[in-house]
Design goal:
Layout lengths: L4 H10 L5 H6 L7 E4 L7 H11 L3 E4 L19 H14 L2
Parallel strand pairs: 1-2
Amino acid sequence: MPHYFSLYEDFHLNEKHLNIEEAARKLHIPFMQIHGDMDESVSISEGIQLAHWTNTQLKIIKGADHTFGSSHPWISLEMPEEMKEVCSTVLRFLDQ
């Protein structure tokens, strides 16, 4: 996915409104976070920090990458085990 310089310019112009920590600390609804321990796109340390800011648990899925073993387009008939774990975790969270 290309990232054009205009994306940076837009972020810079709106940085005050795009503060993740500030938004997370204002969040007062049930929140769930799932992270793969092999994610190369988003560091797990960022997930840990977000969990701290929101006072929530971080569900870490062992061996999972950023897409939990899935891809686009999905051509397999079977769902990856990591994505199955994501789905079952989300269903349990929504069932509370």
